[in-house]
Design brief:
Elements: H1 11-20, H2 24-30, H3 44-48, E1 51-52, E2 61-63, H4 69-82, E3 85-89, H5 95-109, H6 113-116, E4 129-132, E5 148-155, H7 169-193, H8 200-203, E6 210-217, E7 227-232, E8 238-243, E9 249-253, E10 256-259, E11 267-271, H9 273-278, E12 288-291, E13 298-305, H10 336-346
Helix pairs in contact: 4-7, 5-7
Cofactor: Fe cation
Keywords: Iron, Metal-binding, Oxidoreductase
Protein name: Fe2OG dioxygenase domain-containing protein
Length: about 350
């Protein structure tokens, strides 16, 4: 790979050389590098271009167990409309299940490289379980992010046990069962927050597809030069995120970056692009990013409801129940396939793909 002191710098060839190791960012750290390679360098304005948040600004926390249904719906409504990101506690997922899935993700990423390479692929559609680093490695016009990942489609067609690595197999099956249950409840609460029947969003197949994306962010020797994940919004209806205690997640709120500090036992919920589209901007998909960190590894498990593998012919547009003369549709009708193909081709370049579908 080209070094920092080389005269020539070929971004494509350097990305290709990095990719062909099949060892990801962790391979660089294991090689005890002291400088971040240039393909990971981000323009400094992408790190400092937004003013930092005030220290006491925090995303809403909603207790799903101690209030009345009406009170919970009202809190979800306020959080979804004003923040688009919130976290839930007393959500029904046992603490030992949360710990075991984080441990399982860590075990896989710290497995012998030759074992991990068996799962390495850039085919993120036709395989149920894939390990890679940066899905947009070749398509993104921005820098490479400081993280490794494995993804797994859990629903509607779950993988066989043999398709999953032993290191995380049981943890993934157990955690996903709880996530599907929680997702069902959240879509009911969000439907009611929109003033609709509780089954409305589920009837539109928002709960049909579950994709688990498990990130591993190795410690970074120069965290001021790169990002764990660039600014982006999610191509989902809803995302449930579990993070460990390292920190680094930020959301863009009122033109400021706000830290989403770790909260023991909490799960983070954020609105995705598809929900923004069908609610006609009633709920908005917020942009977020993850900073690189000298500490690590940072572990996160993102569960996306509805993604690109199981396409159907359903056409999605702003829900007629929410439209009026004063609130006409803001987006044209699209299929998930149309949206996600463009999203993946564009990569995480810091712009919203939804802008391409506005009327």
């Amino acid at each position: 790979m080209v070094t920092e002191t080389s005269i020539e710098f070929n971004p494509y060839m350097d990305r290709k050389a990095f990719d062909e190791t099949k060892e990801g960012v962790k391979g660089l750290v294991d090689a005890k590098i002291t400088q971040v390679p240039r393909i990971f360098h981000v323009p400094q304005d992408s790190l400092t271009g937004k003013k930092p948040s005030v220290s006491d600004l925090k995303i809403p926390t909603i207790d799903l167990d101690t209030a009345s249904r009406e009170a919970i719906v009202e809190k979800v409504k306020n959080a979804a409309e004003k923040w688009e990101f919130f976290q839930v506690i007393n959500h029904g997922v046992p603490l030992n299940v949360l710990e075991e899935i984080k441990d399982g993700v860590r075990r896989f990423h710290e497995e012998d490289p030759e074992v991990k390479k068996q799962y390495f692929s850039r085919d993120l559609v036709n395989k149920n379980f894939v390990y890679y680093s940066n899905f947009d490695l070749y398509s993104s016009s921005t820098s490479v992010n400081w993280r490794d990942t494995f993804t797994c489609y859990i629903a509607p067609d779950p993988p066989t046990p043999e398709e999953l690595p032993v290191t995380c197999r049981d943890a993934m099956f157990e955690y996903s069962k709880h996530v599907m249950s929680l997702g069902g409840l959240l879509f009911e609460l969000l439907s009611e927050a929109l003033g609709l029947k509780s089954e409305t969003l589920k009837s539109k197949e928002c709960l049909k597809t579950l994709l688990m994306i498990c990130h591993y962010y190795p410690p970074c020797p120069q965290p001021d030069l790169t990002l764990g994940i660039s600014k982006h919004s999610d191509d989902s209806f809803l995302t449930i995120l579990l993070q460990d205690n390292i920190g680094g997640l930020q959301i863009l709120h009122q033109d400021s970056w706000v830290d989403v500090s770790p909260f023991p036992g909490a799960l983070i919920i954020n609105i995705g692009d598809f929900l923004q589209l069908i609610t006609n901007d009633k709920f908005v998909s917020v942009e977020h990013r993850v900073l690189a960190n000298r500490q690590g590894p940072r572990i996160s498990v993102a569960s996306f409801f509805s993604s690109s593998k199981h396409h159907n012919s359903t056409v999605y547009g702003p829900m007629k129940e929410l439209l009026s003369e004063d609130n006409p549709p803001k987006y044209r009708d699209i299929t998930i396939k149309e949206y996600t193909e463009g999203y993946f081709e564009k990569g995480l370049d810091g712009t919203s793909h939804l802008l391409n579908f506005m009327i």
